[in-house]
Amino acid sequence: MPRKQTPDDHQPTVDAERRARREAVVVEHMQSENVQAWDRTMATFSHARYELPDGRVIDGRDDVMRYWIEGRTIVPDQRNELIELRHLDETHVLINFWLRGTPTTTGRPFEVALWALYDFDDDDLMTNERVYVDVPTADQIAGRVTPDGRTAPSA
User: Fold this and answer.
1) Which domain holds residue 127?
2) pLDDT in tens for each of the 155 residues of the chain?
3) Hey, how many other C-beta atoms are within 10 angstroms of the C-beta on 48?
4) Residue 128 resides in a domain
């Protein structure tokens, strides 16, 4: 089955220096998650926020920290691996990645390919990570539709 094309396949207008800074932030975010260096991971955000495929929104430093720690209690060896990174526009970086781990509840390892859309501020820090089970649509990228397919509250 052919891979879905991401929306707006045009060349982004983000300059090379800004692209490099944002790529470094994404890589730092992922690497620090893998080693559970939460202060480093938190430093990649100007405002910590996750929107998850099941509809949950984790918003704010304390709630995000709790989300990370509780998640690693259930899947202590959880790790991610970058497959692809793309700059979509002035604000968004889209990645495709492997999520792997072994839940303590089953003892059976898993591997799943997911997508994450990062929103960046003017200081090249993340303001949101939206996680998807499939490549996000143009409406999801624009924030009109949530990762779980509902109309976004601000839409």
Assistant:
1) 16-137
2) 444 444 444 445 679 999 999 999 999 999 999 999 999 999 999 999 999 999 999 999 999 999 999 999 999 999 999 999 999 999 999 999 999 999 999 999 999 999 999 999 999 999 999 999 999 999 999 999 999 999 998 75
3) 22
4) yes
Is 109 a member of any domain?
yes
Q: How many domains does the chain have?
A: 1
Per-residue pLDDT at 30? 98
Domain membership of residue 2 (yes or no) is: no
- 3-state secondary structure string across the chain: CCCCCCCCCCCCCCCHHHHHHHHHHHHHHHHHHHCCCHHHHHCCECCCEEECCCCCEEECHHHHHHHHHHHHHHCCCCEEEEEEEEECCCCEEEEEEEEEECCCCCCCCEEEEEEEEEEECCCCCEEEEEEECCCCCHHHHCCCECCCCCECCCC
Structure confidence by residue, pLDDT tens digits, 90-116: 999 999 999 999 999 999 999 999 999
CATH code for position 131: 3.10.450.50
